[in-house]
Amino acid sequence: MIREAAEGRLFALAVELHARYPRLLWTISRVNPIMGLMILDEMDKGAKLGMVIERRFRKGMERKRDEGLFPEWLGFVVAAEPSEDRRGTDMWAYTDVGKIPLQIKASQSGKERHVQRYNRYHIACIVVPLNKPFDEVFAEAIEIISSERDKIIERNAKIAQARRPVA
What we know:
The chain is α+β, with helices and mostly antiparallel strands. The protein folds into two domains: about 1-45, no CATH class; about 45-160, 3-Layer(aba) Sandwich (Trna Endonuclease, Chain: A, domain 1). The chain is built from five helices and six strands, in the order αββαβαββαβα. Strands 3-4-5-6 form a four-stranded mixed β-sheet.
C-alpha cells in the first residue's frame, strides 16, 4: 500500500515536470518508492534524435501501408520491445517468411559505428535522415527488407535441400 502510494506520487511528479517542460525529454533513472526518491536525467541529444527518427520511420511506414504501397509479401512494421531494443533491434518487419529485425539510424556514419561497435551484421540497418523525403527513405527501406527476405528464402531453400533424402 505504501509502495503503491509512493509510486503514484512519483508518477504525478513526472507528469508535472513534463507539463512544465514539454520540450525536454526526461528519463527516470532510479526510483525508490519507499523513500520517494527519483532522479531525472535529461536525455542526451543522440537519444532524443533516435526517438524522433524511429517515430518518423514507424509513422511513415504506417502511412505507406495504409496507402496500399507495401509489397504483397510485407505485412507491417512495428516497434520492438524495450528488451529487444537493448539488444539492437528497433523495429520488426513482418513478412511472408517471418520477422526481420531492423535497426534505424539517423546517418550513414551512425550505421557504420553501430555495426562495427556491436558486430550486428545480422540486423538490417536503415538510415532515416531528417532532411530526406520519406518517399526516398521508403524506397530504400523496401529494398533493404526485400534483400533480407531474399536471404531468408535462400537459407530456407538450402535447409530444405539438405533434408532431402539422397536417391
